[in-house]
Design brief:
Number of helices: 6
Number of domains: 1
Structural class: alpha/beta
CATH topology: Rossmann fold
CATH superfamily: NAD(P)-binding Rossmann-like Domain
Order of helices and strands: HEHEHEHEHEHE
Radius of gyration: 17 Å
Oligomer: single chain
Strand content: 15-25%
CATH architecture: 3-Layer(aba) Sandwich
Number of strands: 6
CATH class: Alpha Beta
Largest sheet: 6 strands, parallel
Helix content: 25-40%
Distance between the termini: 31 Å
Strand order of the largest sheet: 3-2-1-4-5-6
């Protein structure tokens, strides 16, 4: 099941309306001009949802606007922009830096107690090795024991401290990805 299909199903189940009536989600997606964020945002627009996307430049704003995404101008350091955009959304997908704790916490503070969904993309390195960047000859596969990386931002705000707050928090760990995304001027 794709992330969009899963999110739509989860959204529909959370609504107190007739399940046969399709609901439109309002989604904020950070890194909307990037590969992962852009792919998610375009899929959501294609599925008929209203998507706003955090973009840093006017060029990126033009690119995402041409794809049906409403640009929200700012960076991960612009917490007021993030809070305002998150407040208007039913679902927030943080597809930007998984380690920018300040931005993620700013969006979560707005969502806490609302029952809205927060999806945080994080790399597979969150359960990495202790190689400290050095070359190793070991083979890593599905049988290799996982060694949680304690220095990452995701566990601190997706973990135990938020369990009592009615906010749906979901980490998403896509495989390593590199591409130009929706912004072709890079």
């Amino acid at each position: 099941m794709s992330m969009v299909a899963w999110l739509q199903a989860r959204w529909q189940c959370s609504q107190d309306q007739d399940a046969s009536r399709r609901q439109v989600m309002r989604v904020l997606c950070t890194a909307a001009s990037g590969y992962i964020g852009g792919s998610i945002a375009v899929a959501l627009v294609t599925a008929g949802h209203e998507v706003s996307g955090l973009v840093r430049s006017e060029w990126s704003a033009m690119q995402v606007r041409s794809l049906g995404i409403t640009p929200a101008h700012g960076t991960l350091d612009d917490v007021d922009v993030l809070r305002a955009a998150a407040m208007r959304a039913d679902v927030v997908i943080n597809a930007a830096s998984s380690d920018h704790e300040r931005s993620a916490l700013a969006m979560l503070q707005v969502l806490d107690g609302t029952g809205k969904t927060f999806i945080h993309t994080s790399g597979s390195s969150i359960v990495g090795t202790q190689s400290a960047g050095e070359r190793v000859d070991d083979v890593f596969d599905e049988d290799t024991p996982l060694i949680p990386s304690s220095g990452r931002a995701a566990p601190s705000f997706l973990g135990h401290e938020g369990e009592c707050r009615p906010t749906r928090r979901s980490p998403a760990r896509p495989p390593a990805a590199a591409s130009r995304g929706t912004d072709s001027e890079r």
